[in-house]
Design a protein that fits this description.
- This protein is α/β, with parallel strands linked by helices.
- It contains twelve helices and eight strands.
- It has an eight-stranded mixed beta sheet.
- Helix 4 (78-86) links the parallel strand 4 (68-71) and strand 5 (95-98).
- Helix 7 (168-177) crosses helix 12 and helix 8 crosses helix 9.
- The longest helix has 26 residues, at 252-277.
Length: 279
C-alpha cells in the first residue's frame, strides 16, 4: 500500500493531531485515508472542514480498518482510552504510535491488553508549524517496515531521530521537548537587552526573533558545526568576542548542562509517577 493511502486513525483531535494531519495532507496524503475520533464534536467538525478527512464519534469506529493508530490524548486520559481501545482493535492490530508525554511503552501495552507493535515518540511544540524535533523509540514487536512507516508519519511534523532505549526519551524531553522554552527565554532576554540599549520594543523583538531563526537555519544547512559557525563570526577583539566572554564568565555552558540534567531527572520522575498512579 502506498504511504499516501495508509489508513491512519488519530485518537484525539487536539493540537498535536491537527499538526500531524496538516503535515500529512501537505505531503500529499489522501485525506479520505485519515480519520479522527474525539469526544468533542466541534474539534471533529473543524478537522473535517479544514482538511477533508473523516471523523468518528467513537474510538472503536476510528480504528476498525486502520493500519496505524496514533494516540494523541492527554497522559491522564491514557489508561481509560487505551483500555477502551484494546478491545476494539482489529486483527491483526494496527501499528500504535504514541505522542503522549511520559507514558511508557509498558503502560500502553498493559492497558491495551495485547502484544502489538508500538512506537513511542517525544515531539515538541514546533510540530505545530511543521518544524518540530521528534524523538522515537520502537518496541521489539515493531518491524523495520513499521518503524519506517512511523518515521514517515511523524516526519510530517518535522525532524525525526531514533533513540536506542526508551529511557533516552527522557533526554530527548530535556533537550528538545523543553528546549523551545529555553530559546524563547533567550529571545526574551535579548529583546529586553535591546530595549535597554535604546531600541524600540518592536524593533528589538523582531531583531531577536529573526536572528534566532537565521542562526538556526545556518546551523541546519551548513556542513559546519555550531562551534565552527560561532568561531567564524567571532573576530578577535571584536564585539562578538566581548559578548561571548561575558557569557563564559557567567557560566552559561555549565548552567545549560545543569538545566538539561534537571529536566531529564524530572521527566523520569513524572513518568514513574504516572505509571505508579495507574497500577
Amino acid at each position: 500500500m502506498s504511504m499516501t493511502r495508509t489508513r491512519i486513525a488519530f485518537i484525539g483531535g487536539g493540537n498535536m493531531a491537527r499538526s500531524l494531519i496538516a503535515g500529512l495532507i501537505a505531503d500529499g496524503h489522501e485525506p479520505s485515508a485519515l480519520i479522527v475520533s474525539d469526544p468533542d464534536a466541534r474539534k471533529r467538525d473543524q478537522l473535517v472542514a479544514a482538511y477533508g478527512i473523516r471523523a468518528a464519534a467513537g474510538n472503536a469506529d476510528a480504528v476498525a480498518d486502520a493500519d496505524v493508530a496514533v494516540l494523541c490524548v492527554k497522559p491522564q486520559a491514557a489508561p481509560a482510552v487505551c483500555r477502551d481501545l484494546g478491545g476494539a482493535l482489529p486483527d491483526p492490530p494496527p501499528l500504535v504510535i504514541s505522542v503522549m508525554a511520559g507514558v511508557t511503552e509498558a503502560s500502553i501495552a498493559g492497558w491495551l491488553g495485547r502484544p502489538l507493535a508500538l512506537v513511542r515518540s517525544m515531539p515538541n511544540t514546533p510540530v505545530m508549524v511543521q518544524s518540530g524535533a521528534i524523538g522515537l523509540h520502537a518496541n521489539a514487536a515493531a518491524s523495520d517496515e513499521q518503524r519506517n512507516l512511523a518515521e514517515e508519519i511523524l516526519r510530517a511534523g518535522g525532524l525525526t531521530r531514533w533513540v536506542d532505549s526508551e529511557q533516552q526519551l527522557d533526554a530527548v524531553t530535556a533537550v528538545s521537548g523543553s528546549g523551545p522554552a529555553y530559546f524563547f527565554l533567550f529571545m526574551e532576554a535579548l529583546e529586553q537587552a535591546g530595549i535597554e540599549q535604546g531600541l524600540d520594543a518592536e524593533t528589538a523583538r523582531l531583531l531577536s526573533i529573526q536572528t534566532a531563526l537565521g542562526a538556526a537555519r545556518m546551523a541546519m544547512e551548513s556542513p559546519d558545526s555550531p562551534r565552527t559557525l560561532r568561531e567564524q563570526v567571532t573576530s578577535p577583539g571584536g564585539t562578538t568576542e566581548k559578548a561571548l566572554g561575558v557569557f563564559a564568565d557567567g557560566g552559561l555552558e555549565a548552567l545549560t548542562r545543569r538545566a538539561v540534567a534537571a529536566a531529564r531527572q524530572r521527566a523520569g520522575e513524572l513518568s514513574k509517577m504516572l505509571a505508579e498512579d495507574e497500577k
